[in-house]
Amino acid sequence: MTEKSSVTGRPMTRSSDFVRGIFSLCRETRPLVCTRWRRAALASLCLTFSLHVTGCVSTAKVGLDELQYADGDVPVQHFKSSSTAIEHPAIDNVTTAEVRSTLAPRSLDRRVDDEVREFTLDDAFLTALSKNQVIESSALGGVGASRVLAGPDGVNTVYDSAIQETGVLFGRRGLEAALSDFDARWSTAMRWGRDDRLTHQSPLNPFSSETAGFQTGIDKALASGGSVGVFHNWDYLGNTVGSPLYPSTYSGSIGAQVRQPLLAGAGTEFTRVAGPIRPGFGAIAGVSQGVVIARINQDITLADFEIAVRNGLRDIENAYWDLYLAYRLYDTTVSTHQSAFQTWREARTKLEVGTLKQADELQARDRFYETRAQLELALNELYSAEAGLRRLIGMPMNDGTVLRPTTEPARTELKPDWEACLQDGLSRRTELRRQKWQIKSLQLQLDAARSLVRPQLDAVGSYAVNGFGDRLISEDRSSGYGSMTGGDLTNWGVGLEMSIPLGLRQARSQARNYELQLSRANAILAAQERSIAHDISIAMQEVSAAWRAAESYYNRVQAAEERVRLLKAEQDIGTLTLDLVLRAQASLAEAEAAYFRQVVAYNKAITSLNVASGNLLETNGVWLAEGGWAPEAYSDARLRALARTHGLDDPNLEAAPKEFAVKRRAGTVERDPQPARQADTAPKELFPTPPAVPALKPGNDAPPAEVIK
Fold first, then answer.
1. Is 397 a residue whose pLDDT tops 60?
2. Domain layout of the chain by residue ranges
3. Distances, alpha carbon 516 to alpha carbons 435, 440, 488, in Å
């Protein structure tokens, strides 16, 4: 009968028989004396047994679906569920206060009369800049499509600049990591040893020697590309062979050594770009590890942050105008719904007295329910617009108040000047500043790479004072330090060391690679300038078109209101059917909605023009600057300022090395002479400012419930 396993319920394989054989062998060998070969045999058997148990030898495979309990009926569901379940990280995160304190969202099924909170556009910017650590962007694509959810690694935060500043990896090192290459490095070591052995000269007397060693030194890289170091070491030897002068001796030295590249990698220009040469790294580090490149990478990170802030403020301003439009459309829909309700009530009264046909009453009722549906959808759009603005500026989804925009959109015609906008765009756009930083970095790296297309020729030198004695320290000159302080035992050396790969193919390839990268970066800069010119032209076209359309819609609203007034008067005296009045009311509602949409589109077009010309942050009073210094830096700056106060300007003084960054915008935007054109007419006021946006009070603006039924 086949024996089954108590774990799997399957017939036992040969490995199971082999295990039983091992246990029986162990029982048989227990009373025996454990010789070396028996111990080795038992060790090999135990190793083979462990391999069988862990599955390294056995080829039998048991699937999860075949695992059974001892009775052979119930599968091991707990083991299957535990081993295949998705695990979660064990972190003690705390939900933010905005989420913990938020209330249930407002909806058509939950209408509450919340406190109205008047909110200006400046308030929205201030709230976003003071509360948000992560720069939010408008969600496109529905629920779960926001960038912070779909791609959290690509969002911009207030920590990005500090992360770059403290970076230590190759290619993305921060300023401190780059400066650390010039930190002095102290190394020290101390070792002891003893050696006992027999030799041919003394086969009966063992040779004994005791040794000890001590080395310490400080090395420092220099800005010129060289290095300097000081060292101090001692070696101790004690032996019993022969007849030495001293049974124990101390020999050591103290001195300094210096190395300075003369060709490849020489000079401050190279070191500040590529950092000190690392022979052990070769081409892995490249020529982008210097202090200047780290500083430029920091400026590129700041440019990325500024672009993200600008785009975030653009989204906030657009969301603010969307909320303003939602209020206007809601107010217009309320007025339309009330007019439709009044018309239906009059039609029902006339139907009851027999002066109106039932078809006309049904048409009025149809219009009433149509406007009621539009009112509900407009209210929901208002809820969504307010929630979207709250998300962008970092406010809770519902804190018991409802935001009401009080900043009115611009209603004066804007006639932007093409030359001024183009000049601003080509000098103020952060994308161009970022690309120019990239070009400057590649230019410096190309110069450093060309420096390496030369032999490695170093000048080396060293000087040391030696010491020797039977003791390390004593009052006479026979000790180690005594002979060292005498200055009679010295050693020195000077020379040249050269290393050159025949052909210099790697160095030439690196220089050629940077030449191609620089050409690519310049081509991208030219394409960016063309793209900015197109952005400005498109934005100017949108501003002009939005203005003209808003002007036409305003005139349409005036005509529609007059039409409704005249047709209503004719309908009241019985000379006009109800159908024309309802159509006129619907046309008025559409005209008002289109008018407000176009006003908001006009302001969004102005925002796009400010973005295209690089003036959005300045227009909204937002200025970005680097953070504060350490207290010691302010003291040092004050001392330097006092020194410059009493200094004289030297017109012949040149910076060495040349400066790579300036506080002002470098270069000018050159334009070909443009033909003279006729001056534009003065801007005009589009329309009088309408009354302030009404407060949102859902539930109080609808007709009575008994009438709606």
1. yes
2. 14-78, 184-261+456-499
3. 15, 14, 59
